[in-house]
Predict the structure.
Amino acid sequence: MNIGDVARQSGVPPKTIRYYEDIGLVRPKRSENGYRAFTQKHVHKLAFLGRARALGFTIEDCRTLLALYEDENRESMQVKAVAEEHLRQIDEKIGKLQSMKATLSELIDKCAGDHRPDCPILADLSPNNPSAKE
Amino acid sequence: MNIGDVARQSGVPPKTIRYYEDIGLVRPKRSENGYRAFTQKHVHKLAFLGRARALGFTIEDCRTLLALYEDENRESMQVKAVAEEHLRQIDEKIGKLQSMKATLSELIDKCAGDHRPDCPILADLSPNNPSAKE
DNA sequence: ATGGCGCTTCCAGCAACTGGAAGGTCAAGC
DNA sequence: GCTTGACCTTCCAGTTGCTGGAAGCGCCAT
């Protein structure tokens, strides 16, 4: 199977598949003509990767998950550990974003948004403002 | 003032200040010896940038905000517009992360996390799973 | 044989820094 | 006067995960 077919079947774009080969996530053989020769197994793997990435796992996480996926002797706690750590990272990101959102919303509320130059948003960003964190 | 002092006073690391000069956010003069010569105004600007970045504004947003900050004839609606657009982006990110979090939490809950290989997390990532989105 | 796709490689770029190497400067101490 | 060490300078590379584009083959149909 050529890269285009695999892309269609797995939902992972050709460019990305080549990149994944570069970093060793998939290792297709080559045909006589130099084309990458994929099997159904590769399609499978790539779809797996696509889903893991969609859940926000890093490439390194994906490498680990893929290895566990293919390891008959894995223990589900290994998988769970990776997922839990990832969940922590997500929570952290959400927390930061929500804190930004809170500040930003507040400032936006206070800003008249008219034709006058006075603006609480700029005032807050200004170092003259004593409400600086750190 | 040398870069180190400015870094201490503004909270922006020297490397970052040099980078900001590279991309034209600050334009310090140079001393005889080739050192960057900063003024209090630069400290001010850099602190402003530091805060804007901490609120998650992109560098391009920062460029815009800084220009508005220094423009006596700005209209607060211009600032507000930038902030509102940024808030939208943040909301979008939060939404995506929360959706990931929801899926991930669910899977983690379902996973025994023991010594057996069976794992709902891997099962969900597997393309054999019909619950695929997209 | 001529299109027009599809495949290949390699190089560059995105965002926003950050680390490190190689080297010049400056003030202090002996 | 010389060394030490903390600064400063520039430039290059790496981070994350692709994505776009150029140049150049292969393959199939007309």
About this structure: The first strand of chain A starts at residue 29 and ends at 30. The first helix of chain A runs from residue 3 to 10. The mean pLDDT of chain A is 94.
